């Protein structure tokens, strides 16, 4: 299980990993990505003999999101608790404000065919409204259709 822990309010997010055979007894929790990476919701799926993953790098501070914010893809021969076991991540969507959404997070995805490379990537997002109230945001859902590489790129 890949999981995120921390607090948006404190600008602290840590992406972790743990394994369980029965959902009750868990292995030692390991850190997949350090808090300064701002990784959020690592979602992995098997495709052929390897595993693909899509994750978000979020920005919860004031001001514009840095260029590394957005959705990222990587692949590994097997699921791993070490980010270095996955290929060099490739950014597939930025956090650019597109009017109806900015700063995607919580990705999930599905391949159109078990052996194909066309993926539908679903994500949550939000946009700022003109409401001066205590919560001037609206939440949105989006879908990105993308062809992902069939082979592992870069490391491991």
Distinctive features:
10 strands, mainly beta, 156 residues, globular, 4-stranded antiparallel beta sheet, 3-stranded antiparallel beta sheet
Task: Explain what the structure shows.
- The chain is an all-beta fold and 156 residues long.
- The chain has one domain.
- The protein has strands spanning 2-7, 12-17, 30-33, 39-47, 50-57, 70-76, 90-94, 102-111, 118-128, 137-147.
- The chain is globular and about 50 Å long.
- The strands form three sheets. The protein has a four-stranded antiparallel β-sheet with strand order 4-5-6-7, with no helix packed on it.
- The protein contains no helices and ten strands.
Strand content: over 45%
Number of helices: 0
Strands in their spatial order, largest beta sheet: 4-5-6-7
| Distance separating the two termini | 21 Å
Q: Largest sheet, described in full?
A: 4 strands, antiparallel
User: Are there runs of 5+ residues with pLDDT below 50, and where?
Assistant: none
- Based on the structure, what is the oligomeric state of the protein chains? single chain
Decide which structural class fits the backbone: mainly beta
Please count the beta strands (DSSP E, at least 2 residues each): 10
Provide a brief overview of the structure:
The protein has 156 residues and is mainly β. It is 0% helix and 49% strand.
Q: What secondary-structure arrangement, pairings included, does this model have?
A:
Elements: E1 2-7, E2 12-17, E3 30-33, E4 39-47, E5 50-57, E6 70-76, E7 90-94, E8 102-111, E9 118-128, E10 137-147
């Amino acid at each position: 299980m890949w999981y995120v822990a921390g607090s948006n309010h404190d600008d602290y997010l840590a992406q972790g990993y743990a394994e369980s055979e029965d959902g009750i007894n868990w292995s030692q929790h390991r850190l997949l990505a350090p808090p300064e990476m701002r990784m959020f919701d690592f979602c992995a799926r098997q495709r052929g003999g390897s595993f693909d993953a899509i994750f978000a790098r979020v920005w919860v501070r004031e001001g514009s999101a840095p260029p590394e914010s957005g959705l990222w893809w990587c692949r590994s021969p097997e699921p791993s608790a070490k980010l270095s076991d996955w290929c060099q991540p490739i950014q597939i969507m930025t956090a650019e404000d597109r009017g109806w959404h900015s700063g995607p997070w919580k990705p999930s995805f599905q391949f159109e065919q078990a052996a194909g490379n066309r993926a539908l990537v679903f994500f949550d997002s939000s946009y700022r409204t003109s409401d001066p109230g205590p919560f001037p945001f609206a939440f949105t859902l989006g879908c990105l259709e993308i062809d992902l590489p069939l082979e592992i790129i870069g490391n491991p």
